[in-house]
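Discrete fold record:
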Amino acid sequence: MRFLERVFATVYDSRHSQPRSSEGVRQDPVEVRIPAIPPPPLAPAVRTDVTQLLGRNLADQFTQEVCREYAMVALPGGRHCQSAELGVSLGADELGTVVAIALHFHGDNGFRPYPGTIPGRGGTIPKRGSLHAALGRPDPGQPFDQWRFPTFTMYALYAADNENLMRLTLRQ
């Protein structure tokens, strides 16, 4: 016997009882389950600034540590390393000195998009407008966007829409 039936045994009438439905069908506001809020996406791991590799030798201990950090794999010939998963590749001259670093965006050459921040306080949005807003106008008189910094020069290559960034090349 339910609680109210016992308390109001003399007043209780069967016409006042509500049929109980199965739990899956019940639509009382109290019973409606709110879907769980998904956890926020994981922030990309903070990694060493790749611009620090420019001018260093591939055999240098610091260079080796950064290559391991980015999971770079040496390509045949030994003068190029890349990490397709993190969108980074680098090239060295015949003496093994790192002379160029490429950061790939929007699936450039089969690379996944580079997850880090754009060097030189360029932000995280790989768009022409965002680069211009963060870094200022590029150097005038160039057929491509170029920004000079004290330790490197950055060149931007855009997609056919001339807005989405495909690749940033960093040189000394």
